[in-house]
Amino acid sequence: MLLFKKEKDLKAFIQQEKLAGKKVGFVPTMGALHDGHLSLMALSLETTDVTVCSIFVNPTQFNNADDLEKYPRTIENDIVMLETAGVQVLFLPSVEEVYPKNLTYPDFDFNGLDHLMEGEHRPGHFEGVAQVVYRLLDIVQPTDLFMGQKDYQQWRIIQSMLEQVDWDIKLVRCPIARATDGLALSSRNVRLTEEARQIAPKIRQILSKAKAEIQDLSIGEVKNNAVRRLNKIEAFKMDYFEIVDGQSLQLVKDKSNTQSLVACTAVYIANIRLIDNIILKAL
Ligand code: PAF
User: Fold this and answer.
1) Residue 283: pLDDT above 90?
2) In the predicted model, what is the mean pLDDT of residues 146-168?
3) Catalytic: 125?
4) Residue extents of the structural domains in the chain
5) Where does 187-278 sit in CATH, by number?
């Protein structure tokens, strides 16, 4: 696997590959890689010629200094995983490389996509995500970008960002990778105690119940049932549970007025915040 730390070296390499007619897949990550990330890499490896993974713990998307400090950093293990998976390129930039002085960004308008859910509960988070993804895309200039459905709101915001810039990049939404008991894979799962890990799959079970109910009940009833079920579990502290339009990410009251519906939730289990979602109605 090739390792690049400098923008100019990576750019020169990618330019060469693209000139040779190759499709370049890009998987941006913050490291602490797990099988969920590997499923994104696998899709890129399968459908493009060169897969570039970046590992950069982006300080501008953490609204909580403690969260940034505690974010797991497992670079040696990450490198072994990437090599084993057959990823061709790792981009491992420093903060100075990603954020040189006098850098400018387009003024994105996400038209409310960033207002609810993670946007409401983690102020500034999506500005940071959009900033770093824009910057990384500007450096890597891939043909295909792979992002996970687990961060549905992030995926949708990046889709909107790509609509606002003039780059020919195909965004691929990759399905949520789950443990056999249903828990969505996340870098935060390693911080769960054994007891918390046992109870965590209930998040997925409650989302699945919402999906089973959506045919017969109103949005309000489905939401109330899910909130009641989440609140009933003593170990959970629900941050939010929302049913939103899959495109506008606005709250939906009447399901007949929308083409796609997604239920999204964030739950604390002993201070570890987990997010998950389920598509109730696909476009
Ligand atoms: O989803 C993530 O891991 C991060 O938000 C991303 C997209 C790598 C940007 O830092």
Assistant:
1) no
2) 97
3) no
4) 2-174, 187-278
5) 3.30.1300.10
